[in-house]
Amino acid sequence: MLTQEQIPSLIDSTAYDPSGDKIGAIKQVYLDDRTDQPQFATVHTGLFGLKETFVPLEGAELRGDRVVVPVDKAQVKDAPNIDPDGSDGSLTPHQVAELYRHYHLSSAPSGTRDTYAAQVGRDTARGEDEQWSEQGTGRTERTERTGRSGRTDDAMTVSEERLNVDTETHEAGRARLRKYVVTEDVQQTVPVTRERVRVEREPITEANRDQALSGPAISESEHEVTLHEEKPVVQKEAVPVERVRLGKETVTEEETVGGQVRKERIDTDGV
Fold this sequence. Notes:
- The chain has a domain at 4-127: Roll (SH3 type barrels), CATH 2.30.30.
- 10% of the residues lie in helices and 17% in strands.
- It has five helices and ten strands; from the N terminus they run αββββββαβαβαββα.
- The strands form two sheets. Strands 1, 2, 3, 4, 5, 6, 7 and 8 form an eight-stranded mixed sheet that branches.
- Strand 1 (14-16) and strand 2 form a beta hairpin.
- The longest helix is centred in the middle third of the chain and has 11 residues, at 93-103.
- The protein starts with 6 loop residues before the first helix and ends in a 59-residue tail after the last helix.
């Protein structure tokens, strides 16, 4: 059996039927007026737009973030439902009797009422202030500063929307490193040597007279010398000159974002 202490854990938990089929998220919990124990819950199944469907909690079990209710998902589909924005947080005897008939429960109690936890899922999301106060009957009731009819506080809560800006990473582009070959004309000056003919004459002296008279006195003859020269020889070799890689760096810039937010304002009539 579920208890009042477990109500905070019930809100926004997920309801499942005994066979493990998901029914929906629990939004409100209603108490039995006689026992103050959780009796019904409203579940947003997604089948009726913004409306919430009632499921019984008698015999339900809380298993972590799951609440296993004692009815099948098919039964919940056709069960009575309410518009949470149009509800005053309580059930009439007629509504209770209709729920008991639909789910074939035992005889209905005198009525049910909502508890503080019944509105946690909606009111906390709106930032409304809530507090507990002890009533004369000894039971714990709720007072809520919402300015709604049927509440004990006549103050009105003013809310506003705020922008929550964050960043997310997207791919902005890609960079590729590619190597290709180009041909250039290169000129380089290199020194070369060559031999050329030079006629050398020397007078007849005592030192060379014998060589000069060694041949015939008058004759024809030829003498030949080989000339040499250097020519440039070009050879090519591939040598590494540098290494290139792609790197990434992060830069931080400031961008201005904007949006429209709604704010509540207070106006008075008859003052």
